[in-house]
Write a structure and sequence with these properties.
This protein has about 120 residues and is an all-alpha fold. It is built from six helices and no strands.
Length: about 120
């Protein structure tokens, strides 16, 4: 399952850099759970040819990530925002000062909004 999540994230970030043909094939296999045999039948190629095409796409997407690190940065930002949200919740709970609690709630909501936009 983790592999599929990674493939999906890489595709979300770098899929537009693949050719249209590669994108269509990759979406069928990774997103729509088509088997290599089914893809091969659709494309009029061998099962091995379909397998090789998807592996080349995977390799290309991984190479983009190695150079650009967009997925890594996204995950780091998301993690840090979650930490900020948790800290704001803790601050609100331990603070006896009403204004500090209001500010903590504001910080929590802002981090939540950013997380939703990611």
């Amino acid at each position: 399952m983790e592999r599929i999540v990674r493939q999906t994230m890489l595709y979300d970030f770098y899929g537009e850099l693949l050719t249209e043909h590669q994108r269509e094939a990759y979406e069928e296999v990774v997103m729509n759970d088509l088997s290599y045999a089914e893809l091969a039948r659709l494309e009029g190629i061998s099962r091995q040819g379909a397998y090789d095409m998807i592996r080349r796409c995977d390799k290309q997407l991984e190479e983009y990530e190695e150079k650009l690190h967009l997925v890594e940065r996204f995950l780091t930002i998301r993690e840090r925002l979650q930490e900020i949200e948790e800290t704001a919740k803790e601050l609100k709970n331990v603070s006896g000062d009403e204004s500090t609690g209001v500010l903590a709630e504001k910080i929590r909501k802002q981090s939540e909004e950013i997380l939703e936009q990611l």
